[in-house]
Amino acid sequence: MSILGKGNPSYAFAPVTGTVRHFRSPDDVIASLDSDLESTIALVASGGTTFLSPILGRLGGIVCLDGTLRSHLAIVSREFEVPCLVGTELSEDIPDGTEVTLRIDEQTGVVASPDPDTASDPSADVSAAWWEYIRRVGDEIAVKDFTVGVSGA
Predict the structure, then answer these.
(1) What's the pLDDT at 28?
(2) Burial class (CB in 10 A: 0-12, 13-18, 19+), 118
(3) What's the rounded Cα separation, in Å, for the pair 143 and 138?
(4) Across-strand partners of 64?
(5) How far apart are CA 26 and CA 93, in angstroms?
(6) How far apart are CA 50 and CA 62, in angstroms?
(7) Position 124 pLDDT exceeds 70
(8) Per-residue pLDDT tens for 34-70?
(9) pTM
């Protein structure tokens, strides 16, 4: 596993693997609204980026090239429990479509290419995936209208 960069983790999160996608403007977010973003690692220039808000809870992770633990994305990523690195220094530009792993090594956030032997298998832990889904959309499910009919005997 080669290290592509290091930054400050917004909170203590478990390693996550996903595909890099650059978000440079609100237009990039609008273009992604109908996409499957759960395995997307958003790469943004600043931790102060607010235009990710409509998709933030659906992202697999966030890498901010600038920012501190008091930056907007660091704060809201903690609330949404989305892995996030701020103030990240990359050794090279990471192109869209590159698979990376975000992890924490000795309190330092690491962006690395995934180890082929330990790359996550989506079907490996169905239970974890299910509860992740419930955490993401649970509130939406809870507010849906439904009709309960009671018939008299």
Answers:
(1) 95
(2) exposed
(3) 9
(4) 44
(5) 21
(6) 13
(7) no
(8) 888 999 999 999 998 899 999 999 999 999 999 999 9
(9) 0.75
